[in-house]
């Protein structure tokens, strides 16, 4: 099977649309920063940075640099034990800049009220953070 065919099959398995990156991460007790096992919003922004890096590698062959957020909206709390799906896509391509939109959804919620290990699949997932940012790529590479 050709590498491009492998990639297309993998993209379908994890629900990617062309040009979109998805990562899914469980928030651990280590991620909890505040009372009630609340996770710091900066942890989600870190996930957006990882998404941006993958988008730039796929688009430009270089990790580039996330230089600014134009918008960040925290919509719902995130707790230790929650599973977060962070997605991103490039919305505009300049000479060296790339505008991107990011969303983070809670797909599984920890339910410590039921038992210490209980969790619930959320259908539909809950939007927890939305952001818009700008990345840049090195001048020598530009767009492929």
What does this protein look like?
- The chain is α+β, with helices and mostly antiparallel strands and about 140 residues long.
- It contains 2 helices and 7 strands.
- The protein has a single domain (about 25-135), classed as Thiol Ester Dehydrase, Chain A.
- It has helices at about 5-15, 40-60; strands at about 20-25, 30-35, 40, 65-75, 85-95, 95-110, 120-135.
- The longest helix is centred in the middle third of the chain and has 20 residues, at about 40-60.
Concise summary:
The chain is an alpha+beta fold and 144 residues long.
Sequence-ordered SSE layout with sheet pairings:
Elements: H1 3-13, E1 20-26, E2 32-34, E3 38-39, H2 41-60, E4 65-74, E5 83-93, E6 97-110, E7 119-136
Antiparallel strand pairs: 1-5, 2-3, 4-7, 5-6, 6-7
Quickly list its features:
five-stranded antiparallel beta sheet; alpha+beta; 144 residues; single chain; Thiol Ester Dehydrase, Chain A
What is the CATH topology?
Thiol Ester Dehydrase, Chain A
Strand order of the largest sheet: 1-5-6-7-4
Q: Count the domains.
A: 1
Share in helix: 10-25%
Q: From the 3D coordinates, which CATH architecture would you assign? A: Roll
Helix count, DSSP H or I runs of 4 or more residues:
2
Shape: elongated
Taking all Cα atoms into account, the compactness measure Rg is 17 Å
Distance between the termini: 24 Å
What's the CATH class label? Alpha Beta
CATH superfamily: Hotdog Thioesterase
Helix/strand order, N-terminal first: HEEEHEEEE
Average residue-wise pLDDT: 88
Largest sheet: 5 strands, antiparallel
